[in-house]
Task: inverse folding
């Protein structure tokens, strides 16, 4: 190695060597603890993004850290041509807690969505209906960044520059039951939706529409896919958002990820045995999916996320946030337009530009996410304390004051 090469290897990679697909905030974090992130220069921020609903148990959660350490000293990776005991254990945990009979493990939400789409289409093929390939999705939805996932999503900008729209994907208006009834036909394979949209502006489907969609799917042989990558695993106050309907609108297939690994890359596609009847050996696979490291962390995460006391805590903190944000909406009508979402997937629709507001929040050392329809989202760790929730409201209120004052000054 030459002296220049050695220097290059030791130096941090400059930003112009990273593909420019992100609009990054000028913050770099070096460590986290619970709901706090600490920058490289020691500044502390209250994290109400949690890696976009990923760090559901907070940063450096000791139980997840220990699970990772213990497994790292044993075995990292083998191959899915062998039995992986951790997969058997985590799949059993997930199926016993849900509608599902079988699970496929990947590395991300997008991979879980790919598996869900393939599972739906292969189901109809195996049942003698290969023409049933259409996937019906909805305006404002977001299902990932692979080509199939962006075609299933309801955001045309994600497709710009990547060639023509794929056949077999249909987008409809959000929560429009009559449009759904009109669209379902002989070539429909599945309907895919997020029970509570994330990027689409934290919009929750009505219970009545979800029940009607489930009935329509039963009547037409259409499969129902839920994307609970963001809204699942305790985020709404139940383990999964569909559980709020008490069995009246269970899915046939469901994609999960994010909180499943508590920060470690894990994704999963859950399905009934009936829906997955076409997924035979060779029809799908993954090199890293379900590796022993991921399974060890996933098991530890699910053990915590399924605890009734944690879910009760989510509901308590969510109730506090809802009360407080409703008060801020009344106090700052020229800033806050609407409060949306469910549980600790909180959307605040703004009258001022959401990216500017996110900066106002960062100036208060509060981290929040953006969202569609000029929303900002709060997606804090599920074990956020009530004291930390009060602190978040205080910081958000000061951001509202800044937004109001600047809007008045600009007028």
Result:
């Amino acid at each position: 190695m030459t002296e220049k090469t050695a220097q290059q290897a030791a130096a941090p990679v400059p930003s112009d060597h990273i593909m420019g697909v992100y609009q990054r905030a000028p913050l770099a974090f070096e460590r986290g603890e619970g709901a706090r992130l600490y920058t490289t220069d020691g500044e502390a921020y209250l994290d109400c993004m949690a890696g976009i609903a990923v760090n559901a148990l907070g940063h450096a959660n000791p139980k997840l850290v220990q699970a990772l350490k213990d497994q790292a000293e044993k075995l990292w990776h083998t191959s899915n041509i062998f039995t992986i005991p951790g997969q058997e254990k985590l799949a059993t945990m997930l199926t016993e807690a849900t509608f599902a009979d079988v699970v496929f493990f990947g590395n991300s939400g997008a991979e879980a969505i790919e598996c869900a789409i393939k599972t739906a289409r292969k189901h109809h093929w195996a049942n003698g209906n290969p023409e049933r390939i259409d996937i019906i999705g909805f305006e404002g939805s977001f299902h990932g960044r692979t080509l199939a996932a962006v075609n299933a999503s309801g955001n045309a900008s994600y497709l710009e520059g990547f060639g023509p729209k794929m056949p077999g994907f249909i987008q409809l208006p959000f929560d429009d039951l009559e449009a759904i009834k009109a669209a379902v036909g002989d070539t429909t394979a599945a309907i895919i939706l997020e029970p509570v949209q994330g990027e689409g502006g934290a919009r929750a489907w009505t219970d009545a529409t979800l029940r009607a969609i489930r009935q329509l799917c039963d009547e037409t042989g259409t499969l129902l896919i839920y994307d609970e990558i963001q809204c699942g695993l305790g985020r709404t106050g139940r383990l999964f958002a569909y559980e709020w309907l008490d069995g009246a609108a269970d899915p046939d297939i469901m994609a999960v990820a994010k909180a499943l690994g508590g920060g470690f890359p894990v994704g999963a596609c859950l399905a009934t045995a009936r829906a997955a009847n076409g997924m035979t050996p060779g029809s799908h696979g993954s090199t890293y999916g379900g590796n022993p490291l991921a399974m060890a962390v996933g098991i530890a995460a699910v053990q915590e996320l399924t605890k009734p006391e944690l879910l009760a805590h989510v509901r308590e903190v969510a109730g506090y946030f809802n009360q407080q944000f409703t008060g801020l909406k009344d106090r700052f009508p020229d800033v806050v337009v609407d409060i949306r979402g469910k549980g600790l997937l909180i959307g605040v629709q703004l009258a001022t530009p959401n990216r500017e507001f996110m900066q106002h929040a960062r100036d208060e050392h509060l981290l929040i996410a953006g969202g569609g329809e000029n929303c900002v989202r709060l997606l804090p760790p599920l074990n956020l304390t009530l004291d930390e929730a009060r602190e978040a409201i205080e910081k958000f209120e000061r951001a509202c004051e800044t937004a109001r004052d600047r809007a008045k000054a600009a007028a």
In short: Confidence is low (pLDDT under 50) at residues 1-13.
